[in-house]
Amino acid sequence: MAGTVTIRLVTFDFWSTLLADTRESTAAAHALRLDGVREALAQAGYLYDPAAVQAADGRALAALQGVWNAQRDVSPADQVRIFLEAFEPALPAMLSAAAREAVEAAYATPALTHSPVVSPGAVEAVRGLAAEGLVLGIISNTGRTPGRVLRRLLDRAGILGDFGVLSFSDEVGVRKPAAGIFEATLTRAGCPPKAAVHVGDDPVSDVAGARAAGMRALHYLPEGRAPADGADAVIRHLAEVPALLSRLA
Question: Which of 51, 158, 159, 207 has the fewest CB atoms inside 10 Å of its own CB, making it the most exposed?
Fold first, then answer.
């Protein structure tokens, strides 16, 4: 590729970039999560009405937001522990290992049933970049759907195998925009920041985060919103990425 520095690594955000939830899928997945957790607890002999589950979910989310606001993240097992403690502080210790596994499955997997949709041009962009020999990666915050489930969604989309480095916040323990998750990805890819480009929709987590780590940033704006300050370029369609990279200096 042309330019003073050859681009070697291109990373993507997952949510609202490669794949995007709809309002309907978000609501349905949330309802399935709460119903599934309630059922798993009932199977273990712990009965809670829907209002109690909803209240515990709100308390757990507030606790998680405190962690996330500090640009940190926790494992799926720890998320479930926080959720269970929101019912009763002693509840995690009261459950058998099998019951905890059932709760975690109900908590983590609703997106497999009510799935996000693949963004227009995502498959073409990923396959085109891979065909050029670039190393591809994902740098993404995970929320309540862990990286292991996001991998399954990428596999369904037919592009999981195109990515050589996947950094999900629940696995790294760091959330964007903190530099640590970008730096961990660069280290694993063996790529200096100046030879890497990140593509994402969020002006803070993706654009500012990547730029702070020394990477270049493409701001993905499919809906015509105002571009972020500091973005190296703005794209409206992911299929634009391969051609645009060739023009980045």
Answer: 51
